[in-house]
């Protein structure tokens, strides 16, 4: 797999104009202008850059989980360093909007280094992108215009700080708009939780927990056709619990049923639920329920 260490080499591969700054590039379509068009397709590649792009869909469908977007305006897509990128020409975008690319070293030594790690949307996949209302789209574009002014000006000692500050503001707005998107998708979030639990039930009923162990959240996300980070963020926003917490909750609920079968030892219960070590099962159970599996069995056993 080809990897691009510098911003210049990455943009050259995309067949885009070279950057004015060695670690930062901005392309925008202002007025009647159009964005430069990158190559139509690519096998899997990686690079050391962050990308923030506003695209306008012309043909093809971008999905939000398994549902279509509500809006038909701008789609904001975030990419992080070393993510595997691959695309073809099945989705056609109007060459309007903007594209910001910056090398990870561009923000080194600034507060943005830590802030950017908190934004889960850099780990979402393209079909979980942020779909903007016209008002939200304009707010983002205004911030990008400010960044672009500094980018094209004769840069001085203040330029980088101003650009970093504007990037931070852009990401804060994006985070707000994602919260809105989650809130507007309560039905989808509930459906996602139902599918999550259904997937676990399928594992359990097929005996896979016992034979192959507890599935990872990443495995479950793949079956649900969403990214791991998106799955956790969606469930957290809607239910207050992450995907890992829901996984543990499912296992504890199943454990309660099995524990009331007196012929099974605590170790057998643990192994049946996919735990490699019974001690870990006992610790998790007590952490979640406040009592040990043995104490639970004694408390609720049938007389």
General description of the model:
The protein is of the alpha+beta class and 303 residues long. It folds into two domains: 2-184, Jelly Rolls, CATH 2.60.120; 187-300, Orthogonal Bundle (Arc Repressor Mutant, subunit A), CATH 1.10.10. Helix content is 48%, strand content 17%. The protein is built from twelve helices and ten strands. The chain has helices at residues 7-13, 112-115, 134-152, 159-183, 186-205, 208-212, 217-224, 228-239, 243-259, 266-272, 278-289, 293-300, and strands at 2-4, 24-28, 42-47, 49-59, 63-64, 67-68, 74-79, 85-87, 92-103, 130-131. The chain has a five-stranded antiparallel sheet with strand order 2-9-4-7-10. The longest helix has 25 residues, at 159-183. The protein starts with a strand and ends with a helix. Residues 58-71 have low confidence and may be disordered.
Write the layout of secondary structure elements.
Blueprint: E1 2-4, H1 7-13, E2 24-28, E3 42-47, E4 49-59, E5 63-64, E6 67-68, E7 74-79, E8 85-87, E9 92-103, H2 112-115, E10 130-131, H3 134-152, H4 159-183, H5 186-205, H6 208-212, H7 217-224, H8 228-239, H9 243-259, H10 266-272, H11 278-289, H12 293-300
Parallel strand pairs: 1-3
Antiparallel strand pairs: 2-9, 3-8, 4-7, 4-9, 5-6, 7-10
Helix pairs in contact: 3-4, 5-7, 5-8, 10-11
């Amino acid at each position: 797999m080809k990897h691009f260490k510098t911003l210049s080499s990455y943009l050259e591969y995309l067949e885009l104009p070279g950057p004015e700054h060695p670690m930062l590039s901005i392309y925008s379509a202002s007025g009647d202008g159009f964005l430069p068009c990158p190559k139509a397709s690519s096998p899997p590649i990686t690079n050391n850059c962050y990308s923030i792009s506003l695209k306008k869909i012309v043909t093809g469908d971008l999905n939000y989980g398994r549902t279509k977007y509500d809006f038909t305006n701008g789609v904001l897509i975030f990419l992080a360093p070393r993510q595997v990128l691959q695309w073809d020409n099945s989705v056609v975008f109007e060459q309007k909007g903007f594209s910001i690319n910056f090398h990870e070293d561009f923000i080194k030594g600034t507060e943005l280094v830590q802030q950017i790690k908190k934004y889960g949307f850099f780990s979402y996949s393209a079909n979980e992108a942020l779909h903007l209302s016209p008002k939200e789209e304009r707010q983002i574009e205004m911030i990008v215009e400010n960044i672009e002014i500094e980018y094209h000006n004769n840069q001085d000692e203040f330029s980088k700080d101003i650009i970093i500050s504007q990037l931070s503001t852009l990401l804060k707005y994006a985070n707000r708009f994602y919260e809105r998107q989650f809130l507007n998708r309560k039905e989808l979030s509930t459906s996602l939780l139902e599918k999550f639990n259904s997937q676990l039930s399928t594992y359990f009923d097929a005996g896979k927990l016992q034979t192959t162990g507890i599935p990872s959240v990443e495995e479950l996300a793949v079956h649900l056709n969403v990214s791991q980070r998106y799955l956790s963020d969606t469930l957290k926003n809607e239910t207050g619990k992450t995907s890992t917490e829901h996984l543990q909750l499912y296992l504890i609920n199943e454990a309660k049923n099995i524990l009331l079968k007196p012929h099974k030892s605590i170790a057998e219960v643990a192994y049946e639920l996919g735990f490699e070590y019974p001690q870990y099962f006992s610790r998790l159970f007590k952490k979640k329920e406040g009592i040990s599996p043995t104490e639970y069995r004694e408390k609720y056993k049938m007389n």
